[in-house]
Every structure is written in structure tokens, then in C-alpha cells.
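Sequence in, structure out. Go.
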Amino acid sequence: MPAQAEASTATEHPWWDGAVIYQLMPRSFSDANGDGIGDLQGLQNRLSYLRWLGVDAIWLTPIYPSPLRDGGYDITDFTDVHPELGDLASLHRLIEAAHGHGIKVILDLVLNHTSQLHPWFQRARFAAPGSSEREFYVWSDSTERYSSAPVLFRHFERSNWQWDPQAGQFYLHRFLHHQPDLNYDNPEVQEAMLQVVEFWLERGVDGFRLDAIPFLFEREGTRCEGLVETHAFLRRLRQRVQQHSQRRGKPEVLLLAEAIQPMDEAMPYLAEGELHAAFNFALTAHLFAAVAYGQAADLVRFLNDLSEADVGRGWALPLRNHDELWLGDGHLVPQDVIQRIRNGIPAARGHWLNWGINRRLAPLLNGDSKPNMALHALLYSLPGMPCIYYGDELGMGDWPGLRDRDANRTPMAWTPQRNGGFSSAPDPLLVLPPITTPGYDYRVVNVEVQKSLNGSLLNWHRRMLMSRKLLPALRHGDFRMLPSGHPGIVSYVRQSPEMTVLVAVNLSGTGASTQLNLEPWQGERVRELLWGCEFPEATKRWFIYLPAYGFSWWLLGDAELSSSSQVAAGAERRSASP
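Output:
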């Protein structure tokens, strides 16, 4: 695409529209000082790899001071950095370096709760009932209050209430018992958390992933999720962020909601004046169900509903992350979808935690790169922000049996050397053990080895992401489903002023042929984008064949990008090793 067209496109869309987000856990990514724990300097040292891979933004799981009883989501100070990771100066250097590589930085921010060791909670315990300090949290004389709210961590907690002997009352915790919920009915709490957001805005962050956002307020007789009061606060948050950006003359930062809810309940977070984006966990479940049974009908219906809702660009699209693959009890997706995943994915059996499956992506797919590629071919071409969990670009495995969700949070594999190049520390000092299970051993599944193999999963991801950068239709284009006529094939068109891209993916384990109705493009040229092949011109009954878990992206018509070989060549130029 010409430089002028590229520049005009950049001005029409916020940076996150179509951005690829790479989620990482700083403690498990790269250790620079040899203490066995990943740190911010180690992450900074690996930014050239992330630029080479082709991601647009990095999402850092919590970096704040914490007793680490819940992976850092139990926070004792919202305005500092955990000393094991670095300090505010090292974060500043990381942000500056990331921006130098063209990479945005998103912080994980926990608005709903703190650690019980947070000074706010310690003051609340000792304060008199009804005082401002006590009312920073939610207290009760009975565990019957808010009884309609489900226990989220059902494998670890029996109740949403915990007795505090010093306070002489129960405190609410929608998560683990050492994570008391803040009381958002208290205006002082709201203002304190808005000031936390402004603190990090002053330090140049580009966005926030807002953890557990539906649970800020509680009301009797409800599930205490996504209440109108919560949405009112989020509109206030958005307004403060906008005002700060305007005062500083900077672009607005991304506000991304973690709301594990059905699409119709998650959509209100994308309402005018509220948040910019939300994770689409229901889509994740439908994707796994389609692969599990090789049947795409439910997924196609879901995508049709999504396109009719016309908020597609506001969705962040994950396959896996640092938590379990959350499926719920039929609230997120229908029970038959959950049952397909239970029955159709053998690796899921025996690894259920709370409301989901406690496995990484590659083991869930039995180590088979073909369905892995098929799912990502969808993810990289659907409207929204594709999300990659660190190591999934390699097909990294997990360590079932580690505490809680640590099975999915093991060190990144960089080289075949000791500890996978993650750290020079002795084994007992490592934050978690590196993967040595057969088929996923870090001496084989690592960045260095896969970079050297043209046909590796890592190089495939790089090629797809770099090709995507040259295809504005996949990042910003309109979305239109096409009936495929085959139960295992998903097909659709992405269209922007510059080009039209046709996508078809076979989610079944057998080869599939079908006809697509390309009548709107009758007689136009068709070129396969990734390998540069010319196809027959578009017709009303356009025949395709896709092998098991096969996929293709085609360019329809004579676009500015005149040769599909330019996509491949451009990808190679832009992804040259640093």
C-alpha cells in the first residue's frame, strides 16, 4: 500500500483497531538479573523478538507489589512496581523502549479487589463500623447477604464471605478469601481508583486491561454482575481518561474489559461513552467446540449474530490466556457447546478448574499444529484484536499438577540451553519449572530452534502476522459471512476501500469441498494471498477444496496490492531477524 494511503488509514482508526495483542507474564518471560524470576529488564531485552514476530501491543499481567498468592492479582500498592520485577524507573525505560519498537504497552489493572495486606484493608479492619476507612470494603454481619451471587472460585472457596475477627464482621470476596472486594458505593473508593488510573497515565501507558470488571457493585437479588451502577462508573472512568489525554495532547488509551459473560451481556461495555473493547470469551468457547467436533454450524450462527450486532471491532479475541479456558455453567455459552468441548477434547478430561479447563492451547489440541493454525487463521482474519498468549506461537506445553493455574504460567522457552534460556539461576530458584514433558520439551520447543526452521509454527505465525499488516481489510474492513454449504467450513469476506479478502477455514479433521457464492464479485480476479497462486475468476458457484484443518485467504479483484507475492515478500522484509 502506498505511504500516503497507509498514513491516512492510521489517522482514521485508533491504534488498537485491529491490533494484535501479545499477553505475557513478566515473572515468567525473561530474567535479566539471574535471580530465577522474570523482570522488566528481561522483557525489555526481548522487545526485538516481539517486533520481529509482528505484534502491535504487549499486555503485562499485574506488576504491582503483592504477596503473590494469586499471581499478582492480589495487590498491596496500586502505584508501584513489585521489587522482584524492577521499579518505576525500569518500567519507564521499558515503555520508552517498547514505543521505540512501535509496540504499545497495556497494564493489567485490578479494580474490583485488593490483597488483604493492602493498607486500605488493614485500616478498615481496625476502623469503627460505618467510618470512612471501614466503608472502603463491603462488610456484613451475615453470609446471607447477596446470596444470589455465585461463588466464582468454587474449587477453593465455599462462600463469598470471610470472617474477620478484628473487625467482628464478614467481608465480601468474589474471588479468593484473601482478596477483599472494594466498596464502590463509597465515592472515596471510586475517586481513589480513578487517581490510580491517572497515576499510570502520567507514566505513559497505552492501555489498561480491566480485570473482573462486572463485579464492582452488588445488589440483592442479582448475580452482582454488570449492574447499571458498574456501567455508570465505567462511563465516569472513560471520561477521566479522555480528559487526561486531552490535557496532555495525547491519543486516548485503550480501556479493555475482562467480562466473562455471554455476548449480549458483554456488549453493553462497548456502548457509546463507555469502554473501547471487551474480550469475547463466548467466541473462544465456540471455536473450541467447532474444532472438537469438526462441526461449524454453531460457530457460524454465533458469527452471524456478532456481525449483526455491529460491534466486532470492539472485541479482543483470545484462544488461551493465563487462566483456565473459562466455560461456566451454561451462562457463558449453552450447555451443549460445553459438552462438545468436554467430550471432543481428550486433553480437557481431568483438568477442570473452577469453571473451565486448566490447559494451554497446544496440549488442548493434542500437540497438532494443523488445528492450531486453522484457529489462528480465523483469529487473525476476524474483526477485532487477536490476542496471543506468550509461548502459544511456539506450541509450548504446560505442567499439569502445579498449584492453581501455574500449569499455564511456566517460563518462556528461548533456547535449548539450561532453563530454556529464561534464567541463569539454579533450578530451585526458578519462579516455576520449565517444560520438559515429551513433545513439549524446551530443548526442542523454543524460539531459537523454531526460528531456524522455515516450516516451524513460530515462523508460520510470523508470516501470518506480517501478511496481515499488509492487508488493511483484515485489520479495519467490514465483515460479511458467506454460506459455505459444508458443515465444517467457515467462510466470510473482509472488505475495506483498498481491497476485498475472502477467508475460508475447514475446522474438521477431514478434507472438505464446497461451493461459495461469489456473485457480487462475478468475473473478478482471485489470488491466494499467502502463497501467490492464481485461482479461477469469481463466479456464483465458486468451487474450493480445503484439506483437514486447511484454510486460505484470497484477494478478490485488482487491488492496489497488485501481486500476492508482494504479501509474502513484504512479510519476509518486515520480519527479518533483528
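Check: Residues 477-574 form a domain with the Immunoglobulin-like fold (CATH 2.60.40.1180). DSSP finds 18 helices and 22 strands in the chain.
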